[in-house]
Specification:
The chain is an alpha/beta fold. It has 2 domains: 2-86, SRP54, nucleotide-binding domain (Four Helix Bundle (Hemerythrin (Met), subunit A), Up-down Bundle), CATH 1.20.120.140; 104-303, Rossmann fold, CATH 3.40.50.300. Helices cover 52% and strands 13% of the residues. The chain has helices spanning 2-8, 10-26, 32-44, 49-66, 71-83, 116-129, 144-157, 170-183, 201-217, 236-248, 266-274, 295-303; strands at 104-109, 134-139, 160-162, 188-193, 224-230, 252-256, 278-282, 290-292. An 8-stranded mixed beta sheet has the order 3-2-4-1-5-6-7-8, sandwiched between helices. Helix 3 (32-44) runs antiparallel to helix 4 (49-66), helix 4 (49-66) crosses helix 5 and helix 6 (116-129) packs parallel to helix 7.
């Protein structure tokens, strides 16, 4: 799986490591001109302006304190500064303990085209293989194709599906799905929601309604609200995450399509800017290509030499 992560970050790494090496090689000593160029490389990798400035400030201090001047040492110090963005963070996990008398509830949200339904399918497969009883709620009722796609994933993974007709009230689907999952003694209920642009106020209100319906059935639900972001959108993903978090509260992020972008640095920017834990990363097209996020593994893969 670590090799898959390295492979997934190849496009980002090509744009970062090679450019960093070139910058360090051009400068016989670690001066301000070199640091400015390094900052430009970080910004170009979608790490973001503020986060890049913070990393370079830390690098400047580390170089001064440790009197490092060789290229290998500078790159290692830079790697340490990127990893320091996660200082104090708890390790993330998607493992859960089933609450007494009800299923654990994960609501999955995001804008159109991020890969929410595929992410749900991968989660259902993962937990199904652990022997968990999984129920999927097809609360994306705007598109018949979304219901059909979720039905395919349910069949593939052995999960149970609760659905209504296209155009039905999504909150009603969620209500029925929760009741069904509870009655059947299911371990996990995963809710698919309609893709919505974060600027559509009425659609965001619908998500709030779904949460209200859940909380009437069981206080504290959903247990997780996972926002699926498309890594290929780079810095725009931060604006999406900020809006969703303010509107409904986001407990974690699943970053999809990391293998298809040179903008993988946005992972660092999301953590630094919003402090929302990245729970999972999608590192390929396969049903098993879903990995719990590990900051050390990510930074190692980002800076790995080819």
């Amino acid at each position: 799986m670590l090799k898959k992560l390295r492979d997934a970050l190849k496009k980002t790494r090509t744009g970062v490591v090679k450019k960093l090496s070139a910058v360090v090689s051009r400068h016989p000593r670690a001066d301000e001109a070199m640091l400015e160029e390094l900052e430009e490389v970080l910004i170009g990798a979608d790490i973001g302006v503020e986060t890049s400035e913070k990393i370079i400030r830390g690098l400047r201090e580390s170089i001064r304190r440790e009197a490092v001047s060789d290229s290998g040492g500078i790159k290692e110090l830079l790697k340490q500064q990127v990893l320091a963005v996660w200082d104090g963070s708890m390790p993330v996990t998607m493992e859960f303990t089933k609450p007494e008398g009800r299923p654990y509830v994960i609501m999955v949200v995001g804008v159109n085209g991020t890969g929410k339904t595929t992410m749900i399918g991968k989660l259902a497969k993962r937990f199904g293989e652990q022997g968990r009883r999984v129920v999927l709620a097809a609360a994306d009722t705007f598109r018949a194709a979304a219901i059909e796609q979720l039905a395919i994933w349910a069949e593939r993974t052995g999960a149970e599906l609760v659905k209504h007709q296209p155009g039905a009230d999504p909150a009603s689907v969620v209500f029925d799905a929760f009741c069904a999952a509870q009655a059947r003694g299911a371990d996990l209920l995963i809710i698919d929601t309609a893709g919505r642009f974060h600027t559509k106020v009425n659609l965001m209100e619908q998500l709030k309604k779904i949460k209200r319906v859940l909380q009437k059935r069981a206080e504290g639900t959903p247990d997780e609200t996972i926002l699926v972001l498309d890594a290929t959108t780079g810095q725009n993903a931060i604006a999406q995450a900020d809006y969703f978090n303010q509107a409904i509260g986001v407990s974690g992020i699943a970053l999809a399509k990391l293998d298809g972008t040179a903008k993988g640095g946005v992972v660092v920017a999301i953590k630094d800017s919003l402090n929302i834990p990245i729970k999972m990363v999608g590192i390929g097209e396969g049903a098993d290509d879903l990995k719990e996020f590990d900051s050390s593994e990510f930074v190692d893969a980002l800076f790995a030499e080819e």
